[in-house]
Prior knowledge:
Strands 1, 4, 5, 6, 7, 10, 11, 12 and 13 form a 9-stranded mixed β-sheet that branches. Strands 2-3 form a two-stranded antiparallel ribbon. The chain has 11 helices and 13 strands. By secondary structure, it is α+β, with helices and mostly antiparallel strands.
Amino acid sequence: MTSRNPKLTKDGVFVCIHDDTINSRARDNNGNKPEEEMRVSDMTYEELLKWDFGLWKHPAYKNTKIPTLQEFFEICHDYNMKPFFSIHPNFTDEDIAAIKGHNPNGELVGDKLTTVATDFLGYGYIGINADNVKVGEDKGSEESKALRRAIATLMSVYRESVVYAYYGDRAAIIQYPISNTSWAAPKPADEGYNLAYSKDAEGNVVVTADMSQEEKIAAAKGAAKSLFIAAGYTFDETSGKFTAAPEGGAMEWEVIIPANGIGDHPAYGILTETKNALQEMGMDLIINDPADSNELWDALDAGTAEMWAAAWGATPDPDMYQIYHSSNVHGLEGSSNSNHYGIQSDELDALIMAGRTSTDQAFRKATYKEALELIMAWGVELPTYQRQEATLFSTERVNVATIAGDLTPFYSWLAEIHTLEMN
């Protein structure tokens, strides 16, 4: 068995490389890395052939060229290896078009390629740093929490239309900051289940699933208005705008989104619509879309980001300690610096520890639900989407009838690799 992550070049050639960029593996004739970020999707196959993909590992591999998908299939056939491909992290329209283009029937499953899609283990989100988005000096005050929830309420209402336009039916909207694939994820039938950030300042549910999109937007704007007022912002009824921030508050905020400098990200439309809504209210959201995504990761590491869009990976068993426990807030002595939200709550810490030390699953699920509600009460994370990923098999070389059935993020084709047969 051998595996590869295929990427599509600018001129439509599938090549085998793990990363979206060539920077970590490509070298010039002198052994130097590319000086600027170079994305596979922005390069032609001929341009890729100018780079050496073996020198990074050892001089003995000098002159190794990037393999195409077809070349990899041929190697697998010659050496009787079993190939599989994981399309990760995005299962995009371009990927689908390329796969369908290779199959004579124009479908995802055909004589050339067989595609098996499953939910991805992680999820997309928009984060808000409580240390940098607050009223006054107390990030845990009710006013600071109301401010962050107001912004998240506006963002939340645009998720459905934007994400479905980007991913189609390959993604679902999630309402709690936990992967829908987790056993601990709240379900719509659970008591107290609500849409994310669907309440006004009084705690009334004002946005519901049965509303039209226009009704949801109107209700969300009303809820956000009430939350901004609760945070201490001055609203002028005549102009219909907020005219002043409370002491220690701001009227505009920056969000960093790694969208390649061109808005290519499932959350970009959410941020654009939120910016428009805030401007209508007399405020603003500055959308920073750097060409180099390292700007975001550097800001998170430095603790300077106000808001950002990203995605979490997840583990089969949820453990909130690294991400949400107070001891891991950025800058604390002995901290792992993995709590980028700046959330510090004794109540949340106690729930996290109770959940991770019990073996009673029913107790743990109820405990984690309470913890998730607290995280959202702080307004530091908006879950956006749960997308699909795909594994791609060569129909010509793999007996697809022997691929494991009912695949999930926790039960992949590898679970039954001993039954997989080559044609």
